[in-house]
């Protein structure tokens, strides 16, 4: 049992690139769900379409990297528009169904054998990441004692947390404004907003696009930090982990998704590493008849589910939330 | 202002008491408006005109189609047929938010306050033409802060007028039912509407608050606004309305001044009941029983 390994795993997950991907995706969901009340269950779709927008532009079409970034972001915007036009006039649950279906369709299309020439099939695409890595100013990795990062990770962390900071700044700026007030009002009661002369549909669409852009940014960052765009990465679990991160931190709070994502990955990596260490070797701390090392990787998800349940019962507003707001729901 | 007001009322004096009677200066005109839900014809209004600058009450039994008519007029529901216009502007197929921008703002029977926003934020939302409600100017506070201050000032004045100023920073969800009605009315005024449509403003409001609500509704008229309201409380109807429209089973069955409508046999049959003017505790039970017995005897004799 090596506690150093456990601590290193927990901290490098919490501050590393993985947490950044989920923080960005959750910031998008916060705009959708937390502020506007739009149930987007397909954030993975926004991520995958932007990711493949970049990868296809650079690898398949052999066009410049920066154009790929723009194509990816535009693709996310177009996806938001396509999803929004038919569903935003309907009740909230329709958007949930349509988004989850769309994200699955996109994942299956990107992984389909028929489109192997364009999207690379189930192996996905690689070889688009060099311009990004060439910008890396660091000479080597960093070792802070309890946690260490490789040279590539250090660069990703620098870029990623800067992006997160910029996104948070933007969310903070617009949510304190009258524009943000309209979104929050739509979450509360869209008919009331309509009766006061606001074009509810247009605002929901703007929110869907803005949150989708953050999702697209998360997808692009995801494939940049790992150097490959693989369709199976963008399954629905991705979306629901991002929701978990958002709820842990507290919805409708600027920093909620960011801190939530860090805590989520700290726990999931820390607990996973703890059980893998505890079941390792010839005489493990936890004996074989309780848990084998094969089972240890699953127990973290069981505990995570339990933890989320307890959070919903005892602190439904998340870490940054305001208890009084939740209390109003009970009326 | 006062002269104008009595002018508006005087103009109504010559209006006939027939359903759909034309008004001298209508703010709303509508014809052949129908709406069916399955087999039920919820609204079937041949002709309706609402006079400008007065308080018009829309009364009728439950299920008479009053709220449905409200929804149709304000664009919250689409009729099966019919035309209607506000200030001469045709409103068929015009979405609800545009109707509100034209100056025709409604409230709801079940109040729709924005529970997790503070009272003052609820009020600020009502202001129209806000620069900060556009995404790109929203990012920069300097572009909208002066307008926001002006709106806040106006909101504070309205809150003071509706005696909600003490609740300014509370969540709207923590208000009582009556306070929510007040907030909704005040918020609608932030739009500065020409016509304000109140759906059961007195429902669930305690008697003390009722008096001040009555005063507020009257003050809306005195400011030169037109008020159309749905109400079951006959005291309120009698007290403040200048004109009453009676609906039953989707149709307008009678119109007139409060006094004439309440004396109208059709209205009494459809809505009020024979003893509407008597306090229920004063009705002599024995008299009633004797009356019923006499009717029964007559029936038996016929058979």
SSE topology sketch:
The complex is a heterodimer of chains A (331) and B (303).
Chain A: H1 3-15, H2 17-35, H3 43-60, H4 65-87, H5 92-111, H6 116-119, E1 125-126, H7 130-134, E2 142-143, E3 148-149, H8 151-175, H9 178-188, H10 190-195, H11 200-226, E4 228-229, H12 236-249, H13 256-278, H14 293-314, H15 323-329
Helix pairs in contact in A: 1-13, 2-8, 2-11, 2-12, 2-13, 3-4, 3-5, 3-11, 4-11, 8-11, 9-11, 12-13, 13-14
Chain B: H1 2-13, E1 26-37, E2 40-51, E3 55-59, H2 66-73, E4 81-86, E5 89-90, H3 96-102, E6 104-106, H4 119-126, H5 135-138, H6 141-161, H7 177-190, E7 195-199, H8 207-222, E8 226-230, H9 234-240, E9 243-248, E10 251-256, H10 258-263, H11 265-272, H12 285-302
Parallel strand pairs in B: 3-8, 3-9, 6-7, 7-8
Antiparallel strand pairs in B: 1-2, 1-4, 4-5, 9-10
Q: What order do the SSEs of chain A take from the amino end to the carboxyl end, as H and E?
A: HHHHHHEHEEHHHHEHHHH
Would you identify the CATH H-level superfamily of chain B?
Answer: P-loop containing nucleotide triphosphate hydrolases
Number of discrete helical segments of chain A: 15
Average residue pLDDT of chain A: 92
* Total discrete domains of chain B: 1
Number of strands of chain A: 4
Briefly note the CATH topology name of chain B.
Rossmann fold
Question: How far is the N terminus from the C terminus of chain B?
Answer: 64 Å
Domains of chain A, number: 1
CATH level 1 name of chain A: Mainly Alpha
Question: Strands of the largest sheet of chain A, in order across it?
Answer: 1-4
- In terms of quaternary structure, the protein is heterodimer
Count of helical stretches of chain B: 12
DSSP E strands of chain B, number: 10
Largest sheet of chain A: 2 strands, antiparallel
CATH class of chain B: Alpha Beta
β-strand percent of chain B reads 15-25%
Overall mean pLDDT score of chain B?
87
What does this structure look like?
The complex is a heterodimer of chains A (331) and B (303). Chain A is an all-alpha fold and 331 residues long. Chain A contains 15 helices and 4 strands. Chain A has helices at 3-15, 17-35, 43-60, 65-87, 92-111, 116-119, 130-134, 151-175, 178-188, 190-195, 200-226, 236-249, 256-278, 293-314, 323-329, and strands at residues 125-126, 142-143, 148-149, 228-229. In chain A, strands 1-4 form a two-stranded antiparallel sheet. Chain A has a two-stranded antiparallel ribbon with strand order 2-3. Chain B is an alpha/beta fold and 303 residues long. Chain B has a single domain (2-113, 175-302), classed as Rossmann fold. Chain B contains 12 helices and 10 strands. In chain B, α4 (119-126) packs parallel to α7 (177-190) and α6 crosses α7. Chain B is globular and about 85 Å long. Chains A and B meet through α8, α9, α10, α11 and α15 of A and α3, α4, α6 and α7 of B.
